[in-house]
Structure formats: structure tokens, C-alpha cells
Amino acid sequence: MQCFTKAGFCQGEKLAANADLSAVAKARGIDFFLVAFVDLRGVLRTKMVPSSAIKQIQRDGAGFAPAATWLDFGPHAADLLVMPDASTLLQVPFSPELAVVMGDCFIEGKEVAQSPRAVLKAQIAEAQKRGYVLKSGVEAEFFILSAQNDSISDERDIQSKPCYDAQSMMRRYALLADIVKTLNACDFGVYQTDHEDANGQFEINWHYRDCLTTADQHVFFKWAVKTLAERHGFRATFMPRPFSNLSGNGCHIHCSLWSGEKNVFEGKESISDLALQFLGGVLAKAPSFCAVTNPTVNSYKRLNGAATASGYTWSPNRVSWSGNNRSHMVRVPDNDRFELRLADGAVNPYLLPALMMACGFWGIDTKADPAKCSFPANVNMYEIPDGSPKLEGIASLPRNLIDATRALESDKDLSALLGADFMRAFIKLQKLEWADFSAHLSTWELMQTLDC
Ligand code: ADP
Ligand code: MG
Ligand code: MG
Ligand code: MG
Ligand code: MG
Predict the structure, then answer these.
(1) Measured in whole angstroms, how far is the alpha carbon of residue 242 from the centre of its chain?
(2) Is 207 in the pocket of ligand 1 (CB under 6 A)?
(3) Which helix (H) or strand (E) holds 426?
(4) Which of 2, 95, 302, 373 would you call most buried, defined as having the most Cβ atoms within 10 angstroms of its Cβ?
(5) How far is the CA of 63 from the centre of ligand 2 (A)?
(6) Do 418 and 119 contact (CB within 8 A), yes or no?
(7) In 3D, which of 435, 284, 400, 408 has the Cα closest to residue 351?
(8) For residue 106, how many other CB atoms are within 10 A of its CB?
(9) Residue 262 is inside which H or E element, if any?
(10) Using a 6 Å cutoff on CB, does residue 214 contact ligand 1?
(11) Is the CB of 168 inside a 6 Å radius of any atom of ligand 1?
């Protein structure tokens, strides 16, 4: 099945934030806009607006009932108005009459401080004050499932080490090619696609950008992957660990910090002293921010996870780092960036880079020293048993969502850095999630306890 209708499709010039979308619609043949925002649980919410109405929506905003989304508002709250940011416009290459535009959330003329894009923008403003831009690249792994029963869609994809397998990739080539063509027609700069370490799992890598662009792209990426998978008769999932015997979906983030054209993370042999302080902040705060990078009950089946069919989980269980070594929470693959391997597929695309800046700048301000969590490059972290003296002073990651949420709640630095509105709303939602999970009677409980 071919979903890609216009070969060589071109987006045209990047627009100004307040560009006239009605005129753009006429010039580019756009019939509909999806005016969209992401809530605190990472759900992409949208209104489909015909181009005849986009002028009015640009003036007044697209209206939503805030309590119907995960932003922590009651039913009595006034309308949530989403103001499109025209600079994010992407005309959808496989349905060119449709365009996606991300928006910012306002209620009664005031920006909603806890909305994830606002949380990121606040950190970007702080970076700007310091003369920096964070550039990031994300690796959002996903599974392609059967739309009928949520099993792995390719029944021949059964090797214990399926990573990079050419034949399994060819059986999903049509879908993957449609996704990559879509992204590249949207100027993502995709440079590779592979079958990942779990059966049915894939990864697509594109070029890093300033962190707001990457976050908006990350949102579009998840939407395009899911939409195209459905058009091809499959279902795509970014769920952190959908299969207990297979590696989960990570969402690594690579970070570098720029002052104009200069990457100030670049050092000689390894990353610079400034980058080490930034990294020191990220490492020190990881046990507290895990509730954000790993935001679901299921996330904790990936972290601290049981071994997989391929041999490794590829996910961390402790706060450690080293050079080019994938057994740690942070890897430094080059002398100009670091990679945080903690976050999973459920992470909010805006909150992830916001955390990097909040904790990184805190690390610079407090001269945080990452040395105490560093390991020599040749250590396999997965082989060090619990209780080993080598782990003295090395923090563990939370075991479950409620421990993670309590750690976040008790971190007063993070509250000051991320803002009280965000912390209150996010922690409340995470506690509700845990309460909902705890009230759920599982098959495991029945099996373990019926005969007690
Ligand atoms: P790996 O699987 O080895 O971690 P990938 O190639 O899958 O690496 O992903 C690397 C990501 O890092 C990409 O999104 C890439 O654009 C990004 N990246 C590369 N260099 C930088 C940099 N200097 N700053 C931020 N991101 C970077
Ligand atoms: Mg209505
Ligand atoms: Mg990768
Ligand atoms: Mg990967
Ligand atoms: Mg990686």
C-alpha cells in the first residue's frame, strides 16, 4: 500500500510565528489545519480547523474544555484557548490538504504555566539569558504491532538477536519508507533507520536541532508514525515495555549547548568542563526527575528490568556514566555531547529537554561534579551485582512510579526550577495514576492469592 502521494513534496520557507495561515492555505492548497497541543500525560490534543476559519482561530485561539485534558483543571475552568504558532506548520506530505500546527495554551489571556510547551519555553528563556541554546536529538523507539491483537505484526520476526536484521526490515519496508519520506519532506534530515533490539521494534534517526524544534518534531514524529502505521493496517506503540521478554522503547536524548556557532560542550579528549558541570546537575537530579522521564506505571518494567531475549535491556538501573559505553545511564559518545539513556517512549517531548536545561544550569550554578558517578570505559554496569563495593555512593533509580513521584515531590530545587504550577499539577496527576493502578485487581494477584 502506498500512502505517500506527492514524491518530492516540499514544505517551502519556514514561517514566522504570526504568519497569515489563511494566505498560506491558499498558496499551498491546504484545506484543514490540526491545531494541536500536548498535555501533561503526553496526549496530543487537536481541533481540525478548515482553512476558511483559520484567520479567526489565529486571532481568538482554538477552544478546548481544559478539564477534558490532562492539565489539572476542574470543569468550572474557563476555555483553554490554543494559539497556533505558525512557525511550527508542517503540511502533511501523505495528505497534502492537511497541515499540523502546534499551539500555546492560554486561559483568560494568561499562558497556562504547567502546559508542557510553556515549561520548555521558560527554560529556553533562561538559557537565552545565559547566552545559550540547547540543541537536542531524540531516538524515539517504537514497535509495529498487529492492529487486530497487539502482538508483533511480523510473525517471522522471532530471532533472539533481531537488531539490524535486514529481512525483518524489508517486511516493513513500505511503511518505514513512507515514514522516512514524510519526515524528510518535512525537513527532518533523517539519516538512518534500523530494526532495533526487540522483535518488531524500529528506530528512525534524524538531525538534531534547537530543542524547541526537536520537541515539536518529536510530537509530529509520533503522530506520523502512528497515523501511517494505521494506514498500512498496523498499530505503532511507544509504550515503555510492552513485552516482558523483550527490550523496551527508550527515548534517548543527545544534548549539546551552543553559544552562537560554538558548541560549548566540545572539549579536547572528552566534553568540556562546562559540559561536565551541566552533566553533574543532570546526574544529581536523575533520581528526582525519573517521574518525568519515566512517567508511567509500565516505565518501571523497562528501568530495573528483567533480562531480555537479546541478552540486555539497554536501559539503566543506576545513576552512572562513562565514555562510549551503553551500559550506563549517561553515555558520552563523542567530545561534543552527552546522551541520557534514561527516558522512555512515554516521555513528554517538551518536558524532557526542559529537564535537561533546568538541571544542567543548576549543575553549572552549583559547580556539580559528575566524577563520583563515573566509571572507567571498560566496565559493564550490568555485571556489577547489587551490594558490590563498586556501587558505593552510586544512586539507584526509583523502582516504581510512586517512589519516583515522591522523590520528585521532595526535591525543592526542582520545584523552584520547573515552577510550582507545573510541579503541583504533574505530581497530582502522577498520584492519581498510581491510585488508579493500585485499585486495579490483576490476574497476578488472583493467581498468587486465591489459595491463601
Ligand atoms: P546512538 O544510537 O548511537 O545513540 P543515533 O544515531 O541513533 O545514536 O542518535 C543520535 C542522535 O544524536 C541523533 O538525533 C543526532 O542528530 C543527535 N546528535 C548528534 N550530534 C549531536 C549534538 N552535537 N548535539 C545534540 N544532538 C546530537
Ligand atoms: Mg462543544
Ligand atoms: Mg540509536
Ligand atoms: Mg535504540
Ligand atoms: Mg542512543
Answers:
(1) 17
(2) yes
(3) helix 420-438
(4) 302
(5) 9
(6) yes
(7) 408
(8) 17
(9) strand 262-263
(10) no
(11) no
Ligand nearest to the CA of 197: 4
DSSP label of 139 = E
Of 297, 296, 302, 259, the C-alpha closest to 278 is: 259
Residue 53: how many CB atoms within 10 A of its CB?
A: 14
**pLDDT tens digit at each of 452 positions of the chain:** 455 555 456 787 889 999 999 999 999 999 999 999 999 999 999 999 999 999 999 999 999 999 999 999 999 999 999 999 999 999 999 999 999 999 999 999 999 999 999 999 999 999 999 999 999 999 999 999 999 999 999 999 999 999 999 999 999 999 999 999 999 999 999 999 999 999 999 999 999 999 999 999 999 999 999 999 999 999 999 999 999 999 999 999 999 999 999 999 999 999 999 999 999 999 999 999 999 999 999 999 999 888 898 888 899 989 999 999 999 999 999 999 999 999 999 999 999 999 999 999 999 999 999 999 999 888 999 999 889 999 999 999 999 999 999 999 999 999 999 999 999 999 999 999 999 999 999 999 999 999 99
> Under a CB-based contact definition with an 8 Å cutoff, are residues 411 and 105 in contact?
no
ipTM > 0.95? Answer: yes
Long-range contacts, stretch 225-233, CB < 8 angstroms, 24+ apart: 225/142, 225/179, 228/3, 228/94, 228/175, 228/178, 228/179, 228/182, 229/144, 229/175, 230/147, 231/1, 231/3, 231/94, 231/178, 232/1, 232/3, 232/174, 232/175, 232/178, 233/1, 233/147
Helix (H, G, I), strand (E, B) or coil at 193: strand
222 lines ligand 1 (CB under 6 A): no
Nine-digit cell at 88?
Answer: 511550527
342 class by beta-carbon count within 10 Å (0-12 exposed, 13-18 middle, 19+ buried): buried
